Amino acid sequence: MDPGTKKYYFDEIAAEAAADLLEQFWVLREKEPERYQMIREREQVLRTYFLDKLGFRLIVHRSFAKLEKIPVKAEAWMGIQDFIHPRDYGIFCCLLAFLEGKSVDEQFLLSHLCEDLLGLYPGGEGLDWTHYEHRKSLVRVLQTAVDIGILKVVDGDIADFGYREESEVLYEVPLVARYFMRSYPKDLFQFRTKEEILAAEWQGEEEDVGINRRHRVYRILFLSPVLYSKNADDPDFLYLRNYRNRIREDIESHSGFQFELYKNAALLTLPERRARFTLFPDNKAISDIALQFAQIVREQQQTMELPRQTDGSLQVTQVDFAKWVQICQERFGAGWSKQYREGDIPQIARDLLAHLIDWQMASRAGDTGTIILFPLLVRTVGKYPADFAADGE
Known about the structure:
- By secondary structure, the protein is mainly alpha-helical.
- It is built from 14 helices and 12 strands.
- The strands form 4 sheets. Strands 1-3-2 form a 3-stranded antiparallel beta sheet, with helices on one face.
- The protein is globular.
């Protein structure tokens, strides 16, 4: 089935509103009244476009606008970025359960929440508020809840709780807290894994035919860094090749993104940097190193005549990967931050590999530990200009 023949009257305002809905969890009227109003005014064309192309449901409430973004598969970067321990997620779920028992606009004290969380938290480890790391987990959770908008601070500062167990904060439950969780096709307790939750999205339907293929392909393009071809007969890639002109016209006329299709990869890019989006390269020092490392990979592949896999990837040993990182440091290290300019190769290699994996530019083979470098890595390379001074001036 082709990408569809429906026409939408998308203007620049609708495109901006669509970008807000894709990038943010939701748009709260109280916090962002102008953005909320843009969505409200373009509600019909936005609703039709997202449902037709991605199968996403748009909810426009008097207090918020929310696009229910359900990915094809769960990615590590889709987690809550401020959470650093599994305990954080456990406490967050317990907080949601606690809020279910509260009325809208009801106020409660941090001490009462702490007492209830002790009984709600699952597992044998339990919570101990005399433990500094447990208190810091709760601080991260409550700060995130306030940032999202499902809690309001009436009085006090949660940061103090990280240092003193006796600290008190007064919270209030806003109306939008009732709408944080999306509805599921069946009771959550009937799901055993996150994969089962995602699979339920396609339950009773053919995942690889017609409109569902379009939904899946568009979701990967809009929510993930890249869509790779699995093999020569990959149906998703055949779909992209067959309808590439229509897909390009559709995406570029409804958003600020540009559609790029290569032999083994497809992705959306932006012609210029925009602050609202998470982009590669970002402002992190390791991101600059990734660009320079890509230059080294290109050179090493050609010099050593390393064979590429059918999907365009390159398999290297951990020893070779570290060796290439060392070459990269020797050539470009003069312009690196002090952390990496003076850092040891094993640590730089670990940080770099983790960054590349996050951006789907690399992975690690579970059985052998071999590092797989994907085509997206060498799409863009970086090197210093000719007048770059070795002393960093």
